[in-house]
Each structure stands twice: as C-alpha cells, then as structure tokens.
C-alpha cells in the first residue's frame, strides 16, 4: 500500500484501524515532498515542525481510543493566499515575501478544529492573477502529468500537489477559474463553491465580489468532506451565508449516508443536464470536445436527460470579467504600500537580474525622493508584470471618463449573464461544459501574450460573475493529458453537483 | 490605441512605477486588451441594471433555490434608484449582511498586546513602537 495514494476516506479508515499512524503518514509525505517537489515546485513553504507536532497530537488521541473527525490527521496543503497563523504567506509576491500571518483564516480555523495537518503553503500566480502559475515571483510550478507543461492557475501549486501525491487534499481559491482550471489540467477534482458558501475571512483579496475558497481533492467524495467542514456562515465575512442544510452533511456520520447516495441511481435517472451550445464553438480543441461529449454521453446512458440550451451572453463574459476583476483588484491592492509590511529591500536589486516579469528595476540606482516616489518604487519592484498590468487596467476602467464605458457597462453585462443562467436553470438541473477549451499548454507558450492567457478562462469566468457553484471533474485524457468536465449547479446546490461527480467514478 | 502619456498617467494614479521600456510594452498590451473589451459595445444593456455582487434572492426570501434569482438587482428591477437601494438594504438585513467592524476602543488585555507586537514585527521601518513614514508635506 502506498500511503500517498490514499483518499481522505481511506486515510481516515486506515487511522481508525491503526494500520498506520499520523506521524508515519506525515513523514512519508514530507519525504516525498523533499524528493519529488524539486521537479514540480508545488510548495513555497513546507512547515515540517508544525505538521509533525499536529500529527503527534492526533496520534495521542487515537492512542487513547478517542474517535477522531474524518479530516483529523489527514495531511493537506494550503494555497499561499490563505492565512495560517505564524506561517509565511506570500500570495507568490515579492511584496509579501517576508509576511508572517498574524491570524488564521476562518477556513483554517475550521480545519484546525478537525485536527487537520498542514504540510505547507502552495505556489500560485501572484495574487491569484493568472491561468498557469507562471506569474509566481518564486518560479513556475510544473504539471506532474507532464513536467514540460503548466499545471493551470492560479491554484497551480495546490492542484499539482494533489495530483503529484504530495498531499492528500488542498485548498485553493477561485476568482475566474483558479480552482477548476488547475484541477482540470492536473487531473484532480476541484470545487468552486457558490459565492458566500465559504467565508473569505483571511483570504488575501483579489476581486472581492468573485473570490471563493474551495477544495482540490482526488475524488468528489473527498471534495464533499472538505467543503462540509469549511462552508457556512462566519461573522467575520458578512457575505457568507448558511447553505441549506443537507441531512447527509453533518460530520461524523456523513460517510455512510453519502455512500447510499452513490448507489442511488435515481438521482441520475431523473437528472436534466443542460449542454450550452456556446461552449462548443470554434476555438475548442477537438480532442477536448470529444472527451467532454463522451462524458456527457455516459451520464445519458445512466438515464439522464440531455438537453441543448443557450447562454447567449457567453461570448461577452471574458471581457466583462477582465474589466470587473482588475477594477476590484486595483482597489484591493492599493493597501500594499510597503510601509506596514513589505518594504523596499536595500542594496543591489536582487530580483531584477533575469529580466522578464521581474526585470523591472534593472540597474536602477535607488534614490527615493518622497513618499510618492517610495510608493512607485515599492510597487514597481514588489509586484510582477501581470499584477501591475491588471492594477493599471483596473485604474483605467474606473477612471473618470471611462467608468461608464467600461466598468458600469461590464456590471450591466454581468446582469445579463446571470439572467442567462437563471433562465436555463428553470429547464435543467445542472449544466455540463468543458473547464477549458485547451489541454495543458507548454510552459512559456502563452506568458508573453496576456490576452492569449486570458482566453484560457473563457469557460470558467461566467460562473464567478453569476456566483454559481461548479465542479471540475477529471473525465478522460488526451494522451497523458487530463481533461476536466465542468458541472455547474444552481446556487447552493454543491451537494448535487458533488453527487453527480461521484457517480462518474462509479461507472 | 491608448497613448504613452495615458499609460504613464494611469500608472501614476495607481502608484505603479514603470521603466521606460515597460511603458511601451504596456501601451501595446493594454491597447490590445482594451480593443478586446470593445466587444461589449455589441450588447444592448438598456434594460439591464448593474450587478455589483451576486447575493442570492433565494437566501433573502427563504425561497426554493430552484427559483433563485442570483442578484440583488433582480429585486430592484423596474424600480427607481431609491427603491433599488431600499431593496438592497432589505436584502442586506434579511441576510444579516452588515459591515464587520471592531468597536472603536483601546484594547488593553494581553491578547491585543501580542497582536500589536505581531503587527509591529512586520513593519520594515519603525521607531519606539511607531511606524516610520516618509514626510508627506515638505
């Protein structure tokens, strides 16, 4: 038995039966990270001491015969834009290179209450801006299925860590596809919850009306376990709400019940699946289309009713998103003034040697005239090219004279995009689409052309604009490269899309 | 096409330093991105209210999620702006949406001293427990 292959459920059973200890499991993972992560670069920080001390605590509980929660002792990884108290949190940015979190995010608090074990913090596109994890100030993460290719982004480190068996599960964040895309590219399961289902307290903000934290796991069943723990109303996030209670979700006894659901074929037989025609148009890789159509066909064979539907404003979603997200980002990232934390490093400019994204201040002699100058230099050197690009786009689309043409217009188009979903959800229960029109691409292939990188998100951004839940489910491969099916649900119907995801594995 | 001057101006407004080579690079990139946004001109939005946040009406009204309207603006539709903001507030109260603020008071218990120390530890330039800032007025 290879311990790093196990799912959350399997780890829990193994621990309960005392087949292995948490400490043993943890050491196997840390050893594997030491060896394998040299190639993948999924982790930015590995907290061995914390992980081992957490592991020991759970082992002690098991030793005295205590019944442990399902996530207790299960080693996980956390995207580096989610705060874990006393652990460095960089958002993969130079401006936060030495930032130590002073409190726990709500999701972390909830995981700690369960006895989770944190192996470390994972790489990402800087401030979650990107679709390939190449925008990290600390170097790109590689796709464990093919090291010459990107893992997707922005939660690329989290997805690569799960797919590369460097952790049992991980948390990511999704603003325009940042959980679903890397899950799809790496062959993992990723859940982007309904806006408001999971507290954002302690998540480094990118675009506050779109951001959501969610799980990246090996199976849909695991995603459900993690989601059930991290979701729910939190007084520290006024946009968080209590989802409709699902009788099978109360922790502890959830496993047996959710297994009943898997074996209940009725759920699929009565299912109405909408397939939006706008997601299968020119631009999609025909191989990807074949895999996705094949997966939808399998649900049809299980008795689901497939219906072609239309989301007519789909083609405007990307423009709409790339106005709204940078606008919000330009406001959110104004707080990085390098005065309360960060700062301008003294001496030679250490991260300007290679050129490229971090070549900004090459050979510059540092003369700071005044506060204004201090801001300019701190933010030039602290932020990478893509972050600065988006802050500038956002400042532009919000500026006097352009606000109505860009930002206000985008907000109105957002309404129409939400209306599209509302209309089709009167006819169907869920929607099925590809996660991305492309297979995982080569490292370096799109990084020089920002617009071509944005196009990778064409099938994922609408879901964030409308605030819906969506699952990215690995349903096939082209060669060695995984392809993810996107299952979009009605607001707060995470349980439904997760159950539908579980059925696929059973087939 | 966005001009060099505009790029410089916006970058300054956003407090972002750019090298001269970058100004040109950003000018090209931003222009192609803004050109792409022009696609939105095709959309008729005369009937649409702007959405700034997706808050579900289902939650607000306790309705079945199947009938969920995704955003506050759906309720505001057809009303004037004052009514719209009233509706938004009504939703806000029924979903218990409120700003999370801390009481404006000095906290003297031990925990807050720890908190203050943790925060001060992160400050790059400080003196006697104060954050040093460059002169704002000359």
CATH superfamily of the largest domain in chain A, by name, is: Amidase signature (AS) domain
Q: Using DSSP, what is the number of strands of chain B?
A: 2
- Give the N-terminus to C-terminus distance of chain A in angstroms: 24 Å
**Main interface by residue count:** A-B, 85 and 66 residues
% residues in beta strands of chain B: under 5%
Q: Estimate the helix proportion of chain A, in percent.
A: 25-40%
For this structure, the CATH topology of the largest domain in chain A is Amidase signature (AS) enzymes
Backbone shape of chain A: globular
Helix content of chain B: 40-55%
Whole-angstrom Rg of chain B: 24 Å
Terminal CA distance of chain B: 38 Å
Q: Are there runs of chain B of 5+ residues with pLDDT below 50, and where?
A: 56-95
For the largest sheet of chain A, list the strands in their spatial order: 1-3-2-4-6-5-10-11-9-7-8
Overview of the molecule:
Chain A has 507 residues and is α/β, with parallel strands linked by helices. In chain A, 38% of the residues lie in helices and 12% in strands. Chain A is built from 17 helices and 11 strands. Chain A has helices spanning 8-16, 22-40, 48-63, 106-113, 156-163, 180-186, 220-230, 254-263, 266-269, 286-301, 317-332, 371-382, 385-398, 404-424, 450-454, 461-466, 494-506, and strands at residues 43-46, 75-79, 117-122, 169-174, 189-192, 212-217, 272-276, 305-309, 430-434, 470-478, 481-488. In chain A, strands 1-3-2-4-6-5-10-11-9-7-8 form an 11-stranded mixed beta sheet, with helices on both faces. In chain A, a hairpin with a 2-residue loop joins strand 10 (470-478) and strand 11. In chain A, helix 5 runs parallel beside helix 6 (180-186) and helix 7 packs antiparallel against helix 17 (494-506). Chain B is mostly helical. Among the domains of chain B are: 4-42, Histone, subunit A; 45-99, no CATH class. Helix content of chain B is 46%, strand content 3%. Chain B has a two-stranded antiparallel ribbon with strand order 1-2. The two termini of chain B are 38 Å apart. Mean pLDDT of chain B is 73; it is low at 56-95.
């Amino acid at each position: 038995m290879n311990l790093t292959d196990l799912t959350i459920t399997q780890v829990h059973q193994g621990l309960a039966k005392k087949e292995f200890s948490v400490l043993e499991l943890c050491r196997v993972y840390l050893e594997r990270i030491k060896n394998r992560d040299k190639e993948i670069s999924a982790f930015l920080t590995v907290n061995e001491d914390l992980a081992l001390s957490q592991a020991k605590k759970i082992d002690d509980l098991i030793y005295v015969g205590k019944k442990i929660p399902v996530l207790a002792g299960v080693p996980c990884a956390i995207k580096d834009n989610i705060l874990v108290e006393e652990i460095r949190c960089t958002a993969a940015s130079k401006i936060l290179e030495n930032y130590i979190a002073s409190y726990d995010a709500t999701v972390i608090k909830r995981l700690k209450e369960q006895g989770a074990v944190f192996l470390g913090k994972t790489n990402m596109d800087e401030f979650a801006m990107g679709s390939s994890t190449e925008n990290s100030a600390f170097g790109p993460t590689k796709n464990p299925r093919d090291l010459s290719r990107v893992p997707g982004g922005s939660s690329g480190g989290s997805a690569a860590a799960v797919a590369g068996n460097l952790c049992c599960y991980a948390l990511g964040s999704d603003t325009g596809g940042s959980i679903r895309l890397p899950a799809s590219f790496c062959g993992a399961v990723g859940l982007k919850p309904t806006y408001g289902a999971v507290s954002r307290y302690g998540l480094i903000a990118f675009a506050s009306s779109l951001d959501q934290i969610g799980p990246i796991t090996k199976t849909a069943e695991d995603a459900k376990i993690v989601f059930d723990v991290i979701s729910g109303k939190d007084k520290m996030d006024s946009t968080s709400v209590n989802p409709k209670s699902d009788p099978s979700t109360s922790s502890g006894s959830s496993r047996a019940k959710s297994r009943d659901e898997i074996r209940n074929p009725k759920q699929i037989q009565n299912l109405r699946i909408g397939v939006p025609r706008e997601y299968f148009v020119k631009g999609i890789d025909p191989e990807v289309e074949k895999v996705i159509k094949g997966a939808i066909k399998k649900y049809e064979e299980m008795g689901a009713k497939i219906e072609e539907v239309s989301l007519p404003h789909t083609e405007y979603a990307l423009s709409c998103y790339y106005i709204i997200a940078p606008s919000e980002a330009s406001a959110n990232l104004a707080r990085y003034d390098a005065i309360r934390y960060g700062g301008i490093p003294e001496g030679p400019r250490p991260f300007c040697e290679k050129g490229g994204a971090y070549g900004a201040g090459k050979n510059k002699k540092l003369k700071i005239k005044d506060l204004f100058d201090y801001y300019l230099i701190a933010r030039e050197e602290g932020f990478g090219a893509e972050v600065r690009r988006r802050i500038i786009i956002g400042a532009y689309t919000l500026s006097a004279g352009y606000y109505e043409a860009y930002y206000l217009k985008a907000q109105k188009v957002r309404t129409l995009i939400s209306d599209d979903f509302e209309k089709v959800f009167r006819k169907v229960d869920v929607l099925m689409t590809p996660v991305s029109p492309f297979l995982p691409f080569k490292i370096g292939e799109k990084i020089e052309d920002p617009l071509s990188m944005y196009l990778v998100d064409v099938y994922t951004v609408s879901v964030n604009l409308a605030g819906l839940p969506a699952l990215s489910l690995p349903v096939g491969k082209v060669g060695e490269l995984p392809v993810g099916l996107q299952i979009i649900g009605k607001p707060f119907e995470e349980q439904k899309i997760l159950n539908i995801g579980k059925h696929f594995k059973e087939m | 096409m966005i001009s060099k001057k505009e790029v410089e101006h916006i970058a300054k407004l956003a407090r972002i330093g750019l090298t001269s080579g970058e100004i040109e690079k950003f000018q090209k990139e931003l222009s192609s991105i803004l050109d792409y946004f022009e696609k939105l001109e095709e959309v008729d939005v005369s009937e649409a209210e702007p959405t700034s946040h997706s808050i579900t009406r289902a939650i607000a009204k306790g309705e079945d999620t199947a009938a969920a309207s995704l955003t506050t603006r759906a309720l505001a539709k057809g009303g004037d702006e004052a009514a719209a903001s009233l509706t938004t507030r009504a939703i806000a109260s029924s979903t218990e949406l409120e700003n999370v603020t801390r009481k404006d008071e000095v906290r003297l218990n031990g925990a807050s001293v720890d908190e203050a120390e943790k925060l001060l530890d992160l400050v790059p330039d400080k003196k006697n427990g104060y954050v040093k800032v460059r002169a704002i007025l000359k």
